[in-house]
Amino acid sequence: MIDSILDDFFWRALIGGLGVAIIAGPLGCFVVWRRMAYFGDTLAHSALLGVALGTLFHVDLNLSIALVCVLLALVLVALSRQQSLASDTLLGILSHSSLAIGLVALSLMGEVRIDLSGYLFGDLLAISRHDLLWIAAGGTLVLGLLVWLWKGLLMTTIHEELAQVEGYSVSGLRLALMLMFSLVIAVAMKVVGVLLITALLIIPAATARPLTRTPESMALVASLLGMVAVASGLSLSWFSDSAAGPSVVLCAFVLFLLVWITRGHQAR
Amino acid sequence: MSEPVIALHDIHVQFSGPPVLQNVSLALHPNDIVTIIGPNGAGKTTLVKVLLGITKADAGRVRRKRGLRIGYVPQQLNLQPTLPLTVERFLRLAGAEPQSIAHTLERTGVAHLQQNSIHHLSGGEMQRVLLARALLRRPHLLVLDEPAQGVDINGQAALYELIRDLRQELGCAVLMVSHDLHLVMASTDQVICLNRHICCQGQPERIASDPAFTAMFGDRLASSVAVYHHQHNHDHDLHGNPVLPHDHTHDHPHDAPHNAPHDDKGCQSP
Known about the structure:
The complex is a heterodimer of chains A (268) and B (270).
Chain A: H1 2-7, H2 9-33, H3 37-57, H4 61-81, H5 87-108, H6 116-121, H7 129-158, H8 160-165, H9 170-192, H10 197-208, H11 215-240, H12 244-263
Helix pairs in contact in A: 2-7, 2-9, 2-10, 2-11, 3-4, 3-5, 3-9, 4-9, 7-9, 10-11, 10-12, 11-12
Chain B: E1 6-13, E2 21-28, E3 33-37, H1 44-52, E4 59-64, E5 70-73, H2 87-92, H3 98-107, H4 123-136, E6 141-145, H5 153-170, E7 173-178, H6 181-187, E8 190-195, E9 197-202, H7 204-208, H8 211-217, H9 219-224, E10 235-236, E11 242-243, H10 265-268
Parallel strand pairs in B: 3-7, 3-8, 5-6, 6-7
Antiparallel strand pairs in B: 1-2, 1-4, 8-9, 10-11
Helix pairs in contact in B: 3-4
């Protein structure tokens, strides 16, 4: 029964998309709360470099993407400590440079045929059983980490020094958050592609804001909204033959508009 | 004198550039209120960070009492409005039970705000919520960085008075950083004038006439700091005008305590 469901590409796409939406919800909240949207973009763009390197060295693509993201995250954290460049300048440079390096590297590998638009905008309908396994494993790990570290992550988001005085390891928690981002980017790339990953993170979170009064409910509602966006985006793609990744983001945006037009004034 | 809760010996801190702190030594004892004053860039914040263990000193020793619990009241939270947070949820992050949260909020005078969003608090309300959060940790040492910032002048006096009372109840040491001289001088046991090194320290009355203090704050300002002791010998009417205790609307005998019950409607409204 499960086997026959997984044989159908539409069901695989739906299950994979829902899985990514579940973890993107709470992580997206941290992106919004900590104003890391640009940071997420930079990490996501570097995923293309991960694809190039993975193809070159015949490493599992999910793994190579995650590794490149983690490496770049570490570099970013190290660079942001020295303050000769404003952080948005630094992120702007690295974001577009890593995208360019990835594109150039991919085009240099002439003998390998690569579906570039699939990597840029997602290829949800081509999700394989292997990808589903990655989503399940990565998703479980990220959710586990989130539950385990939730209080500390929240405290460092509210006030780093207060958290430090109360005994939380600020740098350790930041590292854990980077690791989770990298994992999510690696598994979400298949769904919406490098250019749209940030959208899947921040739009459901921003939509959830006026509907909720506690951080936990905002994370939960963001997950649910993400799932609704995936399901309706996939249906839109099915019936109108539009690209799946952008359709999902479009549906997320429509939800965002609906909520902010009707409830935006209630953002408390 | 009892054992200090925390003691700094010859602390030296230097980032890139000239030293930020030089040869700073101080000890905080239970029940003491110590206030650090000094101009901008004097290293007040750095000194607090060394005390809190956030910044490591380049030289010198920090000795903490075993199991020292610090209650820290930061200047402000700088919260993103996108993070939905009620006062109660914020205090529960300190690991407190709802019951003790209600009790502590009552003690700091903001019990009515328990279910409110933390984003719509006034400066004074926020300070009292932050203070409650620090108290929930049952601190041996309370550290307040510019507690009166963003609080109106009446609120400031009341806030300092609350801090004094809490010190009495908890028996904890209190360290404050401030640059508003008048109220601080009245609400502290000891003043430390900091300008990269400790210029002078002692009881507020003595400090006010110290040449180092005059040099730091200028002749005119320093001499204007007659130590202002806030006393509840009057109330304010709705226009902010003081209503003196011997106002004719008071009808209790002169030898009765001022706060003895009496029918003083005249005090409440003009």
